[in-house]
Amino acid sequence: MDSGPGDIDALMERYARGEDHVFGCLYKFLAPRLFRFCLRLAPCRSDADDLLQDTFLRMHRARATYLPGASVLHWAFAIARSAMLDRLRYRRRRPEVLGVEDDVALDHTLQAPDGDRPESAALAHDLSSLITRELGKMSEKSRAAYVLMREEGLRAREAAAVLGTTEEAVKQRAHRAYEQLRRAVDSAGWEDYGHERFWDIDRPLRVG
Q1: Whole-model pTM?
Q2: What gap in Å lies between CA 43 and CA 7, rounded to an integer?
Q3: 8 Å CB contact between 190 and 129
Q4: Which of 25, 39, 79, 174 could form a disulfide with 149 if both were Cys (CB 3.0 to 4.6 A apart)?
Q5: Are 77 and 37 in contact (CB under 8 A)?
């Protein structure tokens, strides 16, 4: 049976009180969406795996600071982003060469709409790769704002709370990212394939 946001938040409240046995259920409910978020933040899949585990470790260490009634998913997003920023700062001090074998573009985040048709799967994969590459060219702030609002469906005030900034700043960053992606998708000739079937690029941002 699916669990709603309230159930997940209640689980977190119990975990924050020291009920360690509920962690398994909490992980089950949070991990899929949190991992998707980590995939967008991290430069490669192996980093996303590490970031997810780091996020849950930080959540465990900080669980006593969780405020009852707050969205645990949004709280987890903020922790994941903080962990990623720490990694970026570390890498600036100690740069390293990253391989491309585990690039997040290999993750099929876009599903082909026509079932088992090979050409549909190939088109969806190509578009997913294009979007992922373009997201990687953006500033971290613009990418995070876009992912939270467009892909995770957060409202501007929710995304602003996660990112520790203002609603207006989040809207501007997400819109800037949206326009950059639109230009990249159109320049690649996706209008010839009706890209809206694969990615709803024209769906308006939720700005409330």
Answers
A1: 0.71
A2: 32
A3: no
A4: 174
A5: yes
